[in-house]
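Question thread 4412

I'm putting together a teaching handout and wanted feedback from people who do this every day. The idea is simple: show students a protein as raw sequence, then show them the structure tokens that encode its fold, then repeat with a second protein so they can compare. Below is the first pair exactly as I plan to print it.
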Amino acid sequence: MSWSGGSFGASATCVLAPNADIMTLDGTNTWVLSSGERSLVVDPGPEIEAHLDRVSATGHDVVGVLLTHHHADHSEAARSFAERHGCGVRALDPAYRLGSEGLGDGDVVTVGDLEVHVVATPGHTADSLSFVVPSESAVLTGDTVLGRGTTVVAHPDGELGAYLDSLDRLRALCSEQGITTVWPGHGPVIEDALGALDFYVAHRRERLGQVRDAVAQLQVGGVADAVTLPRQVVEIVYADVDPVLWGAAELSVRAQLAYLAG
């Protein structure tokens, strides 16, 4: 599926950063949320001047930058972009803020008539946030839910128990508030938010079962070893996955093993 960003609803534009690779899919989605002539920018992305110029041209009067989480492909350019526009950066992690305002669960950020509701969704990272835009029946999920495939929950910053709780919380919000659309941090827009979340939960439960079975198999074979166990599990569970992704898969397996052990 080809994805190049674009305009969505009455208020949102996705500017796709030119940083495509095996982990970022088509690139990082920078979201510009506008009301009248004023805008908020979510995840300015990498420090690529041409990309930031495009975001600036889209955003009109940028009054704030919001971060879904600290990973560099989302946050690297946040400070320089905000300084360009004379505004602040709001994030859960104080290390990534510019200015005195942070960002936390339950906060409501406004731009003109547009409201953005902050929801804590830890798991992909400890500082992961999602942003609900009620007027658009949409939620910006950063890397918590991707537009294609599934996200990496990488040990030790990623924590699977928290991630599963966050998926449950997002699903409840979508059901209760009539949120139908996911605006993700990578990949295309998802028009069936509940369906995507159901798939994510089912996928994680299936993977946990596969990891549990692989550990049992290795223990029976007498080859399980605490040091090499994560890679051994990867070689069984992710045998059909391109080995170039096994490093990321091993981080996910470490998070799964920690969850199963705890």
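The second pair follows. I'd like the answer to focus on this one:
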Amino acid sequence: MHVNNEIGNLLDIAEVAKISKENSALFHSDSVQSIGHYNWDVKEVPVDFLAAAAHKFHDPKGIGFAYIRKNSGLKCMISGGSQERGFRAGTESFHNIVGLEEAFVLAYDNLEIEQEFVRGLKEYFIEEVKKEIPEAKFNGLSGNLESSTYTLANVCLPVTPEKGLMLLFHPDIKGIACSKGSACQSGSDTGSHVLNEILSEEDLKKPSLRFSFSKYNTKEEIDYTIGVLKEFTKK
């Protein structure tokens, strides 16, 4: 996983690829959170396989792609037609593929500008959380702009477990979109397996929320969000 989808930790993908090659191991990267947000060159980073999802770079949901290095030795699980090079069956969703390509090109044409803008939003969010809710903690490395992605932050909030049960409903009522974990875990009542591994028992009793940032957000929205969280965390 190049970028963890809950706490944003960045993996040194080049180092993992190097170790894999030294040990004759095939290397697959879940790059869903990084494709469209970081420069990738598979000639420089010799991954064998990687996966991407188009909605992470602002294409409609329902399409993604896999990179498969030539002569990797991959064998198909389901016999497919020649349009999928024999790896899977099914008719391709052509309109989604065209949309993915357009979104992909736009993401990289504007990458540096959008990186600077979105990183500025996250930096502002971190500063405001520390100032307005000083007892809050950033989970993992999400409070470090150098060691985590610039597109999300995960915050442990200083409220009681009883009050925390209402926390996800409260921002939603106020028009704020955030989550307790990844979309993959929606409907699960076991909590985040990521946070279960890294947080203390005391912090696990407190609610944690994941916030994402994009080119469509503003500092005014962050001010509003911080205000709602500050009001909620008042004792």
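Top answer:
Good format. For the second protein you could add a caption like this: The first strand starts at residue 28 and ends at 30. The chain has a mean pLDDT of 90.
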